[in-house]
Amino acid sequence: MTKVLIVLLLALVLEAVGVVFLSRGLKQIGEPEKVSVVQVWRAVCRGAVNPSILLGVALETIFFGALLYLLSQRDVSLIWPLTALGFVLTALAAKFILNEEIHWTRWLGVVLIVIGAALVSYSEKMKPKPLGSPEAAPAAGQGNP
Questions:
Q1: What pLDDT does residue 49 have?
Q2: Burial of 59 (0-12, 13-18, 19+ CB in 10 A)
Q3: Residue 27's CB: how many other CB atoms inside 10 A?
Q4: Residue 92 domain boundaries
């Protein structure tokens, strides 16, 4: 479980920083002046060469690869809720990289997310272990004589 948590935390850091760089890049290229095929195409072309957007996409791609690995190792009902911890890291990254002001009510929401993720993580410990697994075997001196 430790390896899974380390991969998850590293992936979430990359995801949070990636989202921040995507946001920065999108603000750098700006919105199309009007909604037309030509204006949208120009915005897409500016985005395709914007370093912030390219870095953000690269980081999000690495996150997605790590997520695929995590989902292959553990239950989706454990991994997917724990990805909500990315909201904490994204809020921190927005605060310190983009210098966004974050209202206390938003921080309260982040705390609630952390509480929910902790409950999900705790539920993994409550899950019955399959027979024959090392976790299910009784400790020495316990069980039947």
A1: 95
A2: buried
A3: 11
A4: 2-126
